[in-house]
Amino acid sequence: MFGNFCTKMDKTKKTRRHRENKDPHCENYIEKLKNEFLEFAKAIQNLEKHLGNMRKARGGKSFEKIILILLRMIEITCEIPKGEYRNRLKRIDIVIPSSQQAINYPDRSVFLTCKRTLRERWKQEVPQVGPN
After folding, report:
1. What is the pTM of this model?
2. Residue range 45-54: average pLDDT?
3. Of 111 and 23, more confident
4. pLDDT, tens only, 56-78
5. Burial of 36: CB neighbours in 10 Å, binned 0-12, 13-18, 19+
6. Beta partners for residue 111, in sequence order
C-alpha cells in the first residue's frame, strides 16, 4: 500500500514538472486531442440530428397512412399519389377521389396535405394544381 502511494506521488511530481517545463510535445498532443474530441462531438451531434429527422419523417408518413385509413373507414375514396402523379402533384399527400381525377379535373377533387405541427404548415406553401 505504501509502495502504491509513493508511485502515485512520483507520477504527480513528474506531471507537475511536465507542466512547469511546458513541454511542447505535451501541449501539441493536448491540442490535437482537443481537436479530435471536438470533431467527434460534431459528428455525434450530426448523427443525433439525422436520427431525429428520420423519426420526424417516419412520423409524418405514419400520420398520412392513419388519415388514409380513417377516410376509407367512412367510405371516402382516396389515395396517396404515386409515380408520375406524385411528381405532378408535388406536395399533396392525399387526393380524393383519385390521382387521375385530381390531374384531369382539379375542381372536382379534394387535396390534403398532412402536417404534424403548425411549424410544418407555415414552412410549406401548397402549390396550386390547376385553375380555381
Report:
1. 0.52
2. 75
3. 111
4. 767 778 888 888 999 999 989 99
5. exposed
6. 95
Using CA atoms, how far apart are residues 55 and 62, in angstroms rounded to an integer? 10
Find how far residue 66's CA is from the centre of its chain: 21
Q: Could you say which DSSP state residue 90 is in? A: T
Q: How far is CA 49 from CA 36, 54, 55, 73, 121, in A?
A: 20, 9, 10, 36, 21
Distances (CA, A) of 62 to 49, 66, 118: 20, 6, 17
Q: What are phi and psi of 110, to 5 degrees?
A: -115, 135
Asked if 111 and 92 count as a contact pair (C-beta separation under 8 A), the reply is yes
How much is the pLDDT for 5?
Answer: 42
Grid coordinates of 5: 502511494
